[in-house]
Amino acid sequence: MRKIAVLVVAMVWLAAACATDSSNGASGTADTASITTIDPASTTTVDPAPTTTGSEAVGTSEPVPRTITVIEVYDHDSAYTQGLEWIDAGRWNGHLLESAGQYGESRLRIWDPLGAPDGPPASLVETELSDDLFAEGATVVGDRVWQLTWLAGRAFVYDLDTLEPVDEFDYESEGWGLCLLDDVLVRSDGTDRLWFHRPDDFEVVATVQVTAEGRPVEAINELECVPGAESEASRRSADDRIWANIYQSNSIIAIDPESGAVTDMVDASALVPPGFEGDTDRVLNGIAYQPDTGRFWLTGKRWPVLYEVEID
Question: Which residue(s) pair with 245 in the sheet?
Fold first, then answer.
């Protein structure tokens, strides 16, 4: 019964996702047979070549419904969460990296969700952006942190230990979500397309269209790159997946980075805090994967709670 219920939600979501207004609330190299590689000097994007499995094309299969099991609920503050990532190495191992948006509020911070029993803990290290910048997704790359901006076309690079800025790059189109897949940065721009960038100079090396049952999925937002499972006993796919929020939706999807096909879907409606239903400013956004436990951390824009969950 649970799978049937989630599937109904998924079909409703699919229709909405194909016609979503893409406004973001302002108040390892892939297989070239499946992901279109492009000349970094070119700004032209091309639809990915189809990949087939047996007689059925990848991208036309129905996404598999998954369920969420809440392990623990923690306090979160009023940050307008745009990016969330678990840090699993270095000085801040076991802490969360969070990018918060809105003009005049944008910042990047590292904090410990377990560090304060009474309310969300203060940032252990934090940097603020200028008032004319709207922060978006962020991800850790070695000893650096990359952070996108929404409309400015500027990506900032920081030292992971101090969050001091060390570099900056320009890019075309909008910045929404960002994650690291093997040795490639993956960016969303609020459309149905993912962009693959080299982390040394942020040049585009590939692009792929996201589809569910053969139809484009719009408003791809926050991203979390999750490597394939090392054993068949794992609940996760044996292949790499890009988990994503859909802007102004309670659905979380898993995307095959090679074909762009949505392979899995989660209905997270039960996580929405009371009184937040239907609020277009306070929506589900923020996915962090913790490799040592296989669990995810989920929150939303301005949500007072942060969830530690398992996705089955």
Answer: 252
Contacts 24+ apart (CB under 8 A), 196-202: 196/30, 196/35, 197/171, 198/40, 199/141, 199/146, 201/169, 202/155, 202/169, 202/170, 202/171
Find how far residue 157's CA is from the centre of its chain: 18
Q: Is 229 exposed, middle or buried (0-12, 13-18, 19+ CB in 10 A)?
A: middle
Separation between Cα atoms, residue 173 and residue 253, nearest integer Å: 22
Q: Are 179 and 139 in contact (CB under 8 A)?
A: yes
Which H, E and C letters describe 9-75, residue by residue?
A: HHHHHHHHHCCCCCCCCCCCCCCCCCCEECCCCCCCCCCCCCCEECCEECCCCCCEEECEEEEEEEE
How many CA atoms lie less than 13 Å away from 174 in the CB half-sphere? 20
3 state DSSP class of 152: coil
Domains identified in the chain and CATH numbers: 2-21+45-311 (2.40.128.630)
Which residues make beta-bridge pairs with 86? 96
Instruction: Please give the Cα distance from 236 to 287 (Å, whole number).
Output: 15
Label residue 278 by pLDDT band (50, 70, 90): confident
What is the rounded average pLDDT of the residues 45-73? 62
Residue with token string 């279109």: 36
What pLDDT is stored for residue 66 in this prediction? 94
- For residues 301 and 284, what is the distance between their CA atoms, to the nearest angstrom? 6
User: What is the per-residue pLDDT across 226-271, written as a single tens digit (0 to 9) for each?
Assistant: 988 654 445 555 689 999 999 999 999 999 999 999 999 999 999 9
Rounded Cα gap, residues 50 and 232, in angstroms: 27
